[in-house]
Amino acid sequence: MTRTGHCLCGAVSFAFEGEANWCSHCHCESCRRQTASAFTTFLGVPDGAWKWTGEEPKVFVSSPGVRRMFCGTCGAPVAYAAERYPGETHFYVALLDDTSDLLPESHVHWDERVDWVEMADGLPKKEG
């Protein structure tokens, strides 16, 4: 199976083959600030299974060993990679062209969530 996705303006696009390693909602402060949202949802995709199919994104090193990728035209965040997660890149699920068969498995960085969001989905909530 090939999955495709792109940023808001379509300049940065990507594709990957096969299954993702995982799919989770992230509540960490850094992701909240980058996306200006209460949380975001990622897919962990094995390196070597994905490629850029449009322009390559700009990169912001948000902390040592962490690269946040975004479109240089529209500013949309598109991917995340960190040394602490070797061998995979995290893509924003909301950028995928088809998400109909994707189900998040958990909430991560639950300890950093905003107080005004209630989650009643029954998914595991992991600290840190």
TrEMBL record:
The keyword Cell cycle does not apply. Residues 3-111 form the CENP-V/GFA domain. It comes from the Bacteria. Keywords: Lyase, Metal-binding, Zinc. InterPro entries: CENP-V/GFA, Mss4-like_sf. SUPFAM superfamilies: Mss4-like. Belongs to the Gfa family. This is GFA family protein. It comes from Seohaeicola nanhaiensis.
